[in-house]
Amino acid sequence: MTAPAPDTLASTAAPGRRGAPAAPRRRRPGAARWLVLLAFGVFFLLPLFAMLEFSTRQAGGRSFAAWRAIVQDPDLVSAITISLELAALTVVGMLLLVVPVATWVHLRLPHLRRPIEFICLLPLTIPAIVLVVGIAPIYAWVTYLLGDSPLTLAFVYVILVLPYAYRAIDNGLGAIDLRTLAEAARSLGAAWPTVLARVVVPNIRGALVSASFLSVALVLGEFTLASLLNFNNLQVTINLLGKRDAPVSVAVSLAALLLAFVLLLMLSYVGRRRGSSGVTEEG
Amino acid sequence: MTAPQPATTAAPGPASSGTGRRRSGRIVPYLAVTPFLLYVTVFLLYPTLIVVAGAFTDDANRPTVTTLRVLTDGVYLRAFARSIELSAVTAAVGAVLGALLAWAVSSGPPDGPLRRGVMAAAGVLAQFGGVTLAFAFIATIGLSGFATVFLRDHLGIDLFTGGVWLFDLPGLMLVYTYFQIPLMVLVFLPALDGLRPQWREAVESLGGSGWEYWRYVAGPVLLPAFLGAALLLFANAFSAYATAAALVSQGSPIVPLKIRGFLTSEVILGQQNLGKALGFGMVVVVAVVMALYALLQRRAARWLR
């Protein structure tokens, strides 16, 4: 009874598939899928909704006082400014550090690719809380030489974003015909800095943008190093604020999460445009 | 002058174009990577060395293993045990639930708004989180949180009959799960995308059921990727600090908070390097886990992509 069933099923199913060439690649989403999505949606949106509710609480009604306080609290404003400046500095530092080396390794020193990649991925293995233990003595020197500015955090933030930035840029370089482009530029008399700035960079723009976005998101969310090296960035200030004024701290937290979400959503569109346009075709 | 001689300049050899600057050949290409190497030496390799060396020296800078031996007894061993328990539980729960969510997302259109939204949200929660997630849960199930108040007023349920568990290990587990699931989605979704529709069609045309497809084809193909992702989740939870620091202000149940204790308070004489020893212990655990992860990734790459 049961044995012939697979055969008949196969013979009836196969022509059906062949007869419909435009059959959907993916199976139609079932009720199970929507149930799963709904459950996760509730789990993930409930805390965010609770933050909104918590930060607008007022005796007998709703008030956005906590939200207005975000831009009125001087500590918070200066922390936001510092975090944004840190993000910009980190992006610049990361690009200056990684792009030339990644390009150079691709072009001239391919045997160094493994060691350099290992170094760049190393920060994933060294938790920030451990890095801070080792870097505290070095920051004593940094403070001595450059002053006690929170912006000096950018030095270590460049290390922190290294794994993500290197991976994005390395992928970008792997996707273009770097050797041919560089040789063409060189044969037309371009110096290496010119090759880098006018040939390599425009061709891996998408990878650079995605590396930068990721770095910005990481820097805006960084707490460990800033807190334990005693600098006040956005996250440290939010944490301190939590002890003094809970509704405001919750409001800023939600605002920061939403800002990061918008940032990453934009990134997903930038990433796609790179895929469709590919290498620029000029000349 | 330089343009009309492509035959010689296009050759890959470094000395072929003949300008004096680059005649020194072998060494010069390496000079270009020295700024990078200097930078990572100062801000990454040397700090790591300080931690590792510190773990093996005593207060008078003599080599010793007694500092490390302290880790094997009492409070520090228990802190490691709790850290590992926290990471293992949240990695297991996060991996299973995250895989489920990844499946639900992957069966939709690859460029649709649902998928974009989920991926961006997952990126935020998995990597941006930290302090803000701690506050999210304080606002939800804290003592005057939304869910706490709602359940108490409308359903008569008290969330905290067994004490205020949010600011202890159970609370950490809940909040960690909240960022582990999104990380699993980010890591595991590419693996799910690697499943070819033809495999499913092959199973169907041979008379296999949906269960048989998952049991004999998709399951085995995905298993290395799944285990690898679970290990990554473990390492992620093990190294996390911000959430715990914001949530737990008294006591130090887990290793990262113990290290905080050494960094922020007066150091007891004779224990100067204990923080470094704890850090070294963490690096060893994460390094072992990441090595296994790399191994599984290679195994996973055989079928996927």
Distance between the termini of chain A: 70 Å
The pLDDT mean of chain B sits at 81
Order of helices and strands of chain B: HHHHHHHHHHHHHH
Strand order of the largest sheet of chain A: 1-2
What's the pLDDT, averaged over the residues of chain A?
A: 81
C-alpha-based Rg of chain A, rounded: 26 Å
CATH architecture of chain A: Orthogonal Bundle
Quaternary class: heterodimer
Main sheet summary of chain A = 2 strands, antiparallel
How many helix segments of chain B?
Answer: 14
- The secondary-structure element order of chain A is HHEEHHHHHHHHHHH
Shape of chain A: globular
Tell me the CATH architecture of the domain at 75-239 and 279-300 in chain B: Orthogonal Bundle
Q: Low-confidence runs of chain B (pLDDT<50, min 5 residues)? A: 1-22
Structure characterization notes:
The complex is a heterodimer of chains A (283) and B (305). In chain A, 38% of the residues are buried. In chain A, 78% of the residues lie in helices and 1% in strands. Chain A is globular, with a radius of gyration of 26 Å. In chain A, strands 1-2 form a two-stranded antiparallel ribbon. Chain A is an all-alpha fold and 283 residues long. The N terminus and C terminus of chain A are likely disordered. Chain A has 13 helices and two strands; from the N terminus they run ααββααααααααααα. Chain A has a single domain, classed as MetI-like fold. Chain B has 305 residues and is mainly alpha-helical. Chain B has a domain of 187 residues: Orthogonal Bundle (MetI-like fold). Chain B is 70% helix and 0% strand. Chain B contains 14 helices and no strands. In chain B, α5 crosses α11 and α6 crosses α9. The longest helix of chain B is centred in the first third of the chain and has 33 residues. The N terminus of chain B is likely disordered. At the A-B interface, α1, α2, α4, α5 and α6 of A face α3, α5, α6, α7 and α9 of B.
